[in-house]
Amino acid sequence: MDFVAGCIGGAAGVFVGHPFDTVKVRLQVQSIDSPLYRGTFHCFKTIIRRESVFGLYKGIGSPMMGLTFINAIVFGVQGNALRMLGHDTPANQFIAGAAAGGIQSIICCPMELAKTRMQMQGTGEIKASPRLYKNSFDCLVRIYKHSGVTGVNRGMVTTLIREIPGFGVYFLVYDVLTRSLGCEPGDRFMIPKLLFAGGITGIVSWLSTYPADVIKSRLQADGIGGVYQYSSIADCVRQSVRKEGYGVFTRGLTSTLLRAFPVNAATFATVTLVLMYARGVEEGPKECKTTQADHHPQIQQQT
Ligand SMILES: NC(=[NH2+])NCCC[C@H](N)C(=O)O
Fold it and tell me: Ligand 1 centroid vs 212 CA: distance in angstroms?
């Protein structure tokens, strides 16, 4: 049931958060020499004006499909890893989350490569012009045909640098918050508490590894049409800092944090409600459990 809950929770999160992600990528990747957007809200308005509201949903295909598996992997691996580690401690929360973050990167990296390319395609164009990629799947097929497995995994190292600590923090912070807020079964404020805990967790998690996300976006957007600006991660960091200063690592951060709260609040609350329904249907009222796998956003009905 964790699988189903994770899938539905992930889909809810993608629908709520994708526009913010598109704005983030546009701001992260746009040229500093001739910027199209002055900031987060100007970017939102410009995309809607020039590309309609659907411009905000460019590239949603791959995360909507990919997150079905990603959330299932994340919640499944984290819960099983924690059980393997034996004790539900903050350190084990981090370790289990980091393991989940590393494993889900196998799907996340190609998925975000396609998403990033689709989000950057047709930037600022008022009228649809012939596109390099028809859709996210066509994007990955073309990259694979041109550059093979290496091409499809472009940005993998920066994805791992972002996701392994990022997901470690994700599950550690969520566990600490839900415990300190007293998310106990039968608490009538449990859902608002879980929404709050999930939202804050998303913000803290993204802040923890955001510089890696900026570099990952630039590397994954690089090479469209076969023209490469960066030769390596170090070259991308060097060029970015030399041209824009260390502030480059905050590009798109506002949109990311605006996205992180509702997406992760929606994901955790949806997972909770799906599991609550499932347990309510399958197993009826349950005692409050203590293991982390059951400390996840679940609601056991009072017996
Ligand atoms: N820095 C991270 N990768 N944090 C994990 C957050 C994952 C969550 N699915 C989101 O997209 O917000």
Answer: 13
